[in-house]
Specification:
The complex is a heterodimer. By secondary structure, chain A is an alpha/beta fold. Chain A has helices spanning about 20-30, 70-80, 85-105, 140-155, 220-225, 255-260, 280-285, 290-295, 310-325, 345-350, 350-360, 415-440, 445-460, 470-485, 490-505, 520-545, 590-595; strands spanning about 10-15, 35-40, 55-60, 120, 130-135, 155-160, 160-170, 175-180, 185-195, 230, 235-245, 265, 335, 370-380, 380-385, 395-400, 405, 485-490, 555, 565-575, 575-585. The longest helix of chain A is centred in the C-terminal third of the chain and has 25 residues, at about 520-545. Chain B is α+β, with helices and mostly antiparallel strands. Chain B has ten helices and seven strands. The chains are: A alpha/beta, B alpha+beta.
Chain lengths: ~600, ~250
């Protein structure tokens, strides 16, 4: 052991933090490149957010519509992201996704089939063609289990229930991470040549959310503290359809697959209101009548139903209907598939939705409509990465999946997340391994550095301030929900910044009971630090973007500003202070520009 | 009429020992057991240890024994329980206790390492595979497993005899073996391993595992019994053996 034997420590070429789809795929690739690789995760293996993904993996395989190809997928992704996307990431993603899906099949995944025995693909919002490879409505489970089992068979070292709290640095380079075993509360250091962040987003800072306790922005905060650039942190996706009733299930995801498979949104008057919310940007490709919309499911010569507009559009529409007094008793709208598809079809295509509503809400979705409303779901913003290599702006640090930014621009299309994890997870593993192989010299971590972090992590046990981590968390969630939600305005954002400052001050007086062994109160106290960091960056960036685009809607700046479409908002921490500044986005080559202009 | 308050009797303690402790929390509409546990954490016992993630029955993290029955806390509605009496929440008994409701489930991950990997047959000429939906339906049932390990918890082979864990994979792993053995593309043969090392024979098909499965996988009927039949065909059927010997064909 290094570090004067003070802390348990391990040496690796590459460590991957986070074991959802991106982390698993990165670890598999790094290991396949022949470097010593470790996978570290906060939960048990196989429990990460990927397991909850429902609808499918977007990949232009053309199994259902041969007209589909990467160019159409690229165009859909860019337009769905309101053109704020990193064009190169969108291109790589669209080109490589089909191969990544086929690779999963080679590793044992069993997707639903077409009649001729190939992988079946389903319709989803913003996608021109039926494009999502899926397994009923439990695609994420199939994906994470396949990757998990593959990783286990490859003999990759896995550290479960092990939370990484800080990245370690040697000069300007990242050289490992330091954290604690949740089970024992004991500290552990990983010294490594390269680190891949695959830690997901930070949606647990909002009250109505589809995210679990794990989603506390760890990777984003750690990267920022290590000196990495963040971009477009104001871009938070509110998924249009979360459960709304009963209160205990509020926010739990209802897959877009319900609409992909024929379900439609209705207000309390029984009207299909989405026809009233078709924006100019999507007018040419969206059906104007119910007849055309319904015909689209069978024949793509018709235009797409507005029920399947990109998520930002649908979430805002639902929000507006409820505000106008046309919502349900519980503040949502109806999502009806019962009157449109047979009970047998619904149970076959959406078994987990059927189960979820039956068990948790007492609603039989083959007989009655669901009540749904927006729920905080996904960060489009995050750590700035190089499109090809996933390298961050700090040497030795790579990032893939939700923690990284760029691919989805201002709004992510459904199904593009699982494919993102596979495409850029693989690239992160590949280029981190390459970096580690080229790395010469020794990794040096000072014991002082570790001792200082350990002291910070133990502070909640020593404080007698009496602040309760659960109470602060709930208040933070209220603050972000009410002031940094779907519709934003300057005065509220400024108010949120003030509240976040006060939460941070209270955090210094936090006290936790019990000891270090599997202590959720202590873990939450530590996670609050990263949640507050992410909440602050998101709010600052939201103040700075004085326009409405994708997941970011400003009541005081309701239109889209073409000049702001040319920049990313970059957040950096310099000498302890946050700075948000616009920087030009990479220029798209002409042949790709042409793809965007064509009507496909 | 629901009670205004729920009384929960929750196990508190670690490997060294512990006891049930009563907590009272305000009742809310639609609450599940996990909500009540969270309410206890927020207001009474910040250090109450519990695993959870998705809160929607998809990740299989929050397994516990509720009034003595192995269940997911996130999918057990309080309204389904008799709340006029205290509701008992205890950790899974089959696994060593870490703390409160959290147990050491590493046995399952160790057993997973011993499963011989998926080994697919060659691809079609176009570089993909063809499979018919009806040929994968039964395997997709097994892939629904969320690894909550409730079936392992209830299985008396290991629940009452920890020493059997050395040589008994348990229902979860049998589902996994069945998924591989019945996978249309797989070419590995795990029958001897199942018979010799994984203790398939220990299962006397009491179907306790099937009863507790939150995904309603017919573990005994669809996974374990067919595996047993395959092992019998391979090792105990003299006619089949002779036929294979003469023709050189596998079963």
């Amino acid at each position: 052991m290094a570090n004067g034997d003070k802390y348990e420590s391990h040496e690796y070429d590459v460590i991957v933090i986070g074991a959802g789809g991106a982390g698993l795929r990165a670890a598999i690739e790094a290991s396949a490149q022949g470097v010593k690789t470790a996978l570290i995760c906060k939960s048990l293996l196989g429990k990460a957010h990927t397991v909850m993904a429902e609808g499918g993996i977007a990949a232009a395989m053309g199994n259902v519509y041969p007209e589909d190809n990467w160019k159409v997928h690229f165009r859909d992704t860019m337009r769905g992201g309101k053109l704020l996307n990193n064009w190169r990431m969108a291109q790589i993603h669209a080109q490589e996704a089909p191969a990544r899906v086929l690779e999963l099949e080679e590793w044992g995944a069993l997707f639903d089939r077409t009649r001729d025995g190939r992988i079946l693909q389903r319709d989803f919002g913003g996608h021109r063609y039926a494009r999502l490879a899926h397994v009923g409505d439990r695609t994420g489970l199939e994906m994470i289990r396949t990757l998990q089992q593959h990783a286990v068979h490859k003999g990759i070292d896995v550290y479960m229930e092990c939370t990484m709290a800080r990245l370690l640095k040697d000069g300007d380079k990242v050289c490992g991470a330091f954290g604690y075993w949740r089970e024992s509360g004991r500290f552990v250091a990983f010294n490594s040549k390269a680190v891949v962040l695959a830690t997901g987003g930070g949606g647990k800072a909002w009250k109505i959310t589809s995210n679990s306790w794990e989603y506390t922005g760890d990777g984003i905060a750690m990267a920022m503290e290590a000196g990495a650039d963040l971009i477009d942190m104001e871009m938070v996706q509110f998924h249009p359809t979360g459960m709304v009733w009963p209160p205990s299930v509020r926010g739990i995801l209802v897959t877009e697959g319900v609409r992909g498979d024929g379900g439609t949104l209705k207000n309390s008057q029984g009207k299909r209101f989405m026809f009233n919310y078709i924006p100019e940007f999507f007018k040419a490709e969206t059906a104007e009548t119910e007849k055309e919309a319904d015909a689209w499911y069978e024949d793509k010569k018709n235009r797409r139903t507005p029920d399947l507009l990109p998520r930002d559009e649908v979430a805002r529409a639902i929000n507006a209907e409820v505000k106008a007094g046309r919502g349900t008793l519980h503040g949502g709208v109806f999502l009806d598939i019962a009157s449109r598809r047979s009970a047998e079809y619904i149970q076959k295509r959406l078994p987990s939705m059927y189960h979820q509503f039956k068990e948790l809400a007492g609603v039989d979705i083959t007989k009655k409509p669901m009540e749904v409303g927006p729920t905080c779901h996904y960060f489009m913003g995050g750590v700035r990465v190089d499109a090809d290599t996933t390298a961050t702006t700090v040497p030795g640090l790579f990032a893939a999946g939700e923690v990284a930014a760029g691919l989805h621009g201002a709004n992510r299309l459904g199904g593009n997340s699982l494919s993102d994890l596979l495409v850029f997870g693989r690239r992160a593993g590949l280029y981190a391994a390459e970096y580690a192989k080229k790395f010469s010299g020794r990794i040096a971590v000072s014991t002082d550095q570790l001792g200082g972090i350990a002291q910070e992590l133990l502070a909640p046990f020593n404080s007698k301030g009496g602040e309760n981590p659960y109470a602060i968390h709930m208040e933070l969630q209220d603050c972000m929900q009410n002031l940094v939600g779907i519709i934003r305005t300057e005065s509220e954002l400024k108010k949120a910044l003030g509240e976040i400052g006060r939460f941070r001050e209270r955090l210094s007086r936090i006290s936790v009971e019990g000891n270090r062994q599997y202590n959720p109160g202590w873990h939450l106290a530590l996670d609050l630090r990263t949640m507050l960091a992410v909440a602050e960056v998101c709010t600052l960036s939201a103040l700075e973007r004085k326009e409405s685009r994708g997941g970011h809607t400003r009541e005081d700046y309701p239109s889209t500003d073409p000049n702001l479409g040319k920049v990313n908002l970059v957040t950096r921490k310099i000498n302890g202070a946050l700075k948000v500044s616009p920087e030009p986005r990479p220029e798209m080559p002409d042949e790709l520009k042409k793809l965007l202009e064509e009507q496909m | 009429m629901a009670a205004q308050e729920f009384t929960m009797r929750v196990w508190r303690g670690d490997a060294a020992g512990g006891a049930f402790k009563d907590y009272r929390v305000p009742a809310g509409e639609g609450m599940v057991v996990l909500d009540v546990i969270h309410a206890i954490q927020a207001t009474h016992a910040g250090d109450l240890a519990v695993r959870w993630n998705c809160k929607a029955g998809k990740c299989g993290s929050c397994s516990a024994e509720i009034n003595g029955k192995p269940r997911l806390m996130c999918m057990t509605r309080m309204s389904s329980l008799n709340t006029s009496e205290p509701i008992t929440v205890a950790p899974m008994k089959t696994f060593p206790l870490i703390r409160d409701l959290v147990t050491d489930v590493s046995f399952n991950f160790e057993m997973a390492k011993r499963v011989p990997a998926f080994k697919p047959k060659p691809k079609e000429a176009d570089g993909t595979y063809r499979m018919q939906q009806e040929d994968i339906d039964r395997v997709q049932e097994f892939h629904k497993c969320i690894e909550c390990f409730l079936c392992q918890d209830v299985c008396h082979v290991i629940r009452d005899h920890a020493e059997n864990k050395q040589h008994f994979a348990g229902p979860r792993l049998f589902v996994r073996y069945a998924a591989l053995e019945m996978h249309p593309l797989d070419t590995n043969d795990r029958r001897e391993l199942l018979k010799e090392k994984m203790g398939l024979g220990f299962c006397n098909i009491t179907k306790c595992c099937t009863e507790v499965c939150p995904e309603h996988i017919k573990i005994t009927d669809n996974a374990i019994i067919p595996l047993k039949e395959r092992v019998v065909d391979e090792f105990y059927d003299p006619l089949a053996r002779l036929w294979r010997k003469l023709t050189g064909k596998g079963s």
